[in-house]
Every structure is written in C-alpha cells, then in structure tokens.
Amino acid sequence: MNLLKNKQDANDLTDAQTYMNQVYESVEIRNPNEKEFLQAVRSIFKSLLPVFTKNPTYMEKGILEQLVEPERVITFRVPWVDDNGMVKVNRGFRVQYNSALGPYKGGLRFHPSVNLSIVKFLGLQQTLKNSLTGQPIGGGKGGADFDPKGKSDNEIMRFCQSFMTELAKYIGPDTDIPAGDIGVGAKEVGYMFGQYKKIRGSFEAGVLTGKGLGYGGSLARKEATGYGAIYFVEEMLKQKGLSLNGSTLVVSGSGNVSIYAMEKAIQLGAKVVACSDSDGYIFDENGIDINTIKQIKEEDSNRINEYLYTHPQAQYFDGCSGIWSIACDVALPCATQNEIDENAATQLVANGVKAIAEGANMPNTSEAIDVFLDNGILVGPSKAVNAGGVAVSSLEMAQNSMRMSWSFEEVDAQLQGIMKTIYQNCIIAAKEFDQEGNLIAGANIAGFQKVADAMMEQGVV
C-alpha cells in the first residue's frame, strides 16, 4: 500500500514538474531578454512545485499560465519641457498585473533603469506581496525611465503632470491606485495628484497613496516600509533565539526604506554600522547617527559622504558592492535588485551573518540565495519583508474612504500586526509543503495560493 502511494506521489511530482517546465519555457519564448521578469518567475516557480503536486486542479484550470501574463500592459510617451525650453521625451509604463483580490495597487518608479522587464517583475512580485498583506488589493506597478536626480522642482513638476495626463485614463480609486517607489516621493505624488484632480474635475483622494498629510495622506506611511521590515526581522530572529537588541546591522541604501529601517532597528537596540547611496558607502564602527543621515538625505538632499564632515571617525568608500564585506549579524539590502551576488553572499556567510532581510525588491541573485540557504542562513524575501509599505497604503485608502485619519500609534499598531501575520503565514505555508523554515518558499506559496484560489472562484476572466 505504501509502495503504491509513493509511486503515485512520484508520478504526481513528475507531472507537476513537466507542466511547470512547459509553462516556464513558454514564458521564456514570449518574453525574450526580459531578464528581471524571468528571474522573478523562476524564483516563484521553484517554490511552487509541491503546491501543484498536491493541488493538480491549479494545472487543470491554467492558473499558472494566467498568472505569468499581466492582465494589461500600458506604455506611453511622456513629453515635457526642461528649464531651457527644450522638449524631452521619456517612456512611461503601467502594468496592471492581477486584479483577483482587488483593484491594482503598486508604486511608480522614476529611474533611468526602468523598462518593461523591471516593471513586469515588480508587478508579479507586487501581486504576491499584496496577497500576503491580507488586504483587498491586486497587484500593479509602473514608472518611467525619467531621472529626477539633478532636475529642478519645476522640471519634475512638468514631467509629473505630463506623465499623469496619460496615466489618468487608466487609474481610479476602484480601478488602479498607484503610489511612490524609487524616485517618487511625496512631492512627486503631490504633483501627480494635482494633475489628476484637474483632469477629473473632482477630489478623489483614494486614487494615489503616499500623499501629503494635508490632503488625505496617512501618518506612518513614510516610515511603513522600513519599520515593517524590522518588525519582520524581529520575528525572523526569534526563530533562532536571537534578538535585534545588541545585533550589528549593515543596511544598503539611504532612501526612505533604509532610513526608517535603520531608525527602528536603532530604537530596538541594534547598532547599524554601514549604509550607502549610489556613489559609495560609509562605515561607522561606533554606529550610524540616524539623525545625521536624515539631515543629509531628507533635508539637504546631499550625498552620503557628507556624513564624514560631522563624524570624522567614520570611513567612506567609493562604490557600493564593498558594503557587504563588513561583518554583521543582519544584512538588509534596501537599495535595488540583484545587489548581492554569489561572491558577496559568500563573504557575508564567512563573516558570520545570521539573517538576510530583503528591503529592496529581489536584491539577491538566485546564486546568492542558494549560498545563504545552503549555509542555513535565514532569508526574508522582499515580498514579505517590504510589504509594510503597501499594507499602510491600503490603510491610507481605508481612511480616505471613511473620510477620517488615524493616529500614528493606531497605524503603527496595525502595521506590526500585519507583519507578524505575514511571518506566521509564511512559516505555516512552508511547513505544510515540507519546506519548514524556508521563508522564501513560504512567502511564495502563501501569496500564490490566495491569488490562485480567487482566480479559480472567479473563473477565466
């Protein structure tokens, strides 16, 4: 009896593997040269094999074929005029990836690297991330290959207005709700909201999140992604009987996510010894002064090397990759995708790292993840670790709908609860499918199952 069952299990596994290989091959053929998107698909597929083995109905209903294809991809030109009167043209994107759980929800990224592959990978990640939050929101992502760095406020305003003039045709409080991301903060959101309001002729507060507090924004939204990441790290460390209190952290980046992850970690007793920007990184063995970083980055908009002017004992190094050579207990890559490669991962392991938490989207290469997992290092995947931002965006939408505002403490308490629930759901899903302790598998499985079940209940749409 047991032999027959084992043989049947082996057959089911083979069927599922064959099916997933075929789906992935079709994705490769249809999306050539989209390396970031293909990397995201591979990472998710790697976790889902036992799910399809146990639930063949997903195969019969073609859920995977539907999931890897965005519901809608919008590309458009964005003409704008610089301060010298010259016409410039950028390319805008919005990928409305999956609406099984609710209206599309995801940020807008303004950065020269933005292309269709990156926006699709982010949209796929966002779909599973939003599922993990437990909020009624689908997945989307967008942006433009516009670089706000070095632009005047008037140039940024003109670009945002032109961008929103086209994007406004496709979004709305019950359709698609963009937010900020890299290169898009409260200022840019404000310019876009103003243009949307002008086009629509009405005040629809719920169409964008990350707004200013004076016109529908939420307290704790700015802090949410960084704080949420640390709340998740707290839960991760408990798994090994460890604590943030007394731990040493290295955090890449010095933007919104990094700053508030550092702030919360320091509040909880950790020592952050390094952070970076696109030019290089600083190392302060006494612990980074977060107030100085805030002054440099949020108020003065200067480069990270300015830290040395007030903290001469610190060291500055050109380039960013060397930051992972610094010994730490916890590494938080919060800058961009694929910033930790196999060599950096090997060095982190050799220096005694205990946990990696992905504050950025897909900051570890697949080879780096293999190094961490092979050495028993805890890895918190981005779709779980950085879900705090979109979770509080959803809370902002709720406040907008009710025409009310919650206190910082109320929002922060809800954020903590959401992050703890995400962690527990990842642990439960991993254990259910014989991958106990693997948070990457757990996040992919938990996020996927909720979306897949909703898709099946709604039929082919």
TrEMBL record:
Alphabetical UniProt keywords: Oxidoreductase
InterPro entries found in the cross-reference section: Aminoacid_DH-like_N_sf (IPR046346), Glu/Leu/Phe/Val/Trp_DH (IPR006095), Glu/Leu/Phe/Val/Trp_DH_C (IPR006096), Glu/Leu/Phe/Val/Trp_DH_dimer (IPR006097), Glu_DH (IPR014362), Glu_Leu_Phe_Val_DH (IPR050724), NAD(P)-bd_dom_sf (IPR036291), NAD_bind_Glu_DH (IPR033922)
Domain of life: Bacteria
Sequence ranges assigned to domain Glutamate/phenylalanine/leucine/valine/L-tryptophan dehydrogenase C-terminal in this UniProt record: 218-459
The keyword NADP appears for this protein: no
MF GO annotations: glutamate dehydrogenase (NADP+) activity
Pfam family, one: ELFV_dehydrog
Subunit structure as annotated in this protein's UniProt entry: Homohexamer.
Family: Belongs to the Glu/Leu/Phe/Val dehydrogenases family.
Name the UniProt record assigns to this protein: Glutamate dehydrogenase
Origin species: Virgibacillus tibetensis
